[in-house]
Amino acid sequence: MPLSNFDKYFMNLPPKDKRGDFNQFWERSIAEIKKTPLETELVKNNRKTSHRFTSYDVSYKGFARTAVTAELLMPRKSPKPRVLVHIHDYNRHVPRPQQELEDSLAHLFITLRGHANILKPAAAEEEPASPGYMMENILDRDTYYVKAVYLDAYRSIDMLRLIPDINCSAIGAMGKGFGAAVALFMAAFSDRIAALVLETPAFCHLPLSQNLAASDASREINEFIAAARNKKKLIKENLTYFDAVNFTDMIHCPVLATVGFKDPIAPPECVFSLFNHILSEKVMEVYPEDGNSAGGNAQFRKSQVWVAKQVNT
Length: 313
Hints:
Layout: H1 3-10, H2 22-33, E1 41-44, E2 53-61, E3 67-75, E4 83-87, E5 106-110, H3 145-161, E6 171-176, H4 178-189, E7 193-199, H5 206-212, H6 216-227, H7 232-239, E8 255-260, H8 268-277, E9 282-287, H9 296-311
Parallel strand pairs: 4-5, 4-6, 6-7, 7-8, 8-9
Antiparallel strand pairs: 1-2, 2-3, 3-5
Helix pairs in contact: 3-4
């Protein structure tokens, strides 16, 4: 790839568009969610338990007391392990067989709210129907869907701390696409996140990505704006409270990010806009010939090894 093409992607450092009450909004929101009892439930899943991991179906209360579901895999060979939290992309996921997982870590796979019955593998021949969640309460940032998802994931940290067989002094978080924005939010507001993996991060630099990204999330928001043009200013202002770029100054842990230069879902210009604003120790794995897979299974395994090294040091 010509150097000029690389610079086109790398040389992106847009100004942040944080509103004056950004920090207060999130400090208040987190204080409110902490008042909600977790009501955690763990049930062993014998069907998914293997010689490497014991599987548990997990449920706890998130935003507005809605139940958040997840799968927890506890490694059989590692007593009191540290944990890696996985957050899938909006309206899609990549199944991760247990043989691909690092067994020095426990793994928590969170299911985004509303996704329990709609998820299909990202590689499925038929594209999953867009569920419309990104439009849910978009005119009210206090009840917006993305706020709920961010706080659902944040609550998983408190939930994990209640499990005596897990060492929560250092937690890893790994998110794909929109899930990367969710993971970054967790790291911004919890010093227990000691390693952060951003797989082709999306929902970042929204003023640009809303014009470039061919993602379900971008399409849903744009369709709503097109149908409610008189609300466009309000919507764009509300979205500034959830744009991942605006959380970057609160990231202090090491970060590993991935990007594919042929990715229409998470445009590389927007990925680098996010990455360049992060001031902590960081590394970018670049795949010039890849799209949204950006390294695929090999990179996924490499990222896990990196997390294990960070959290176990």
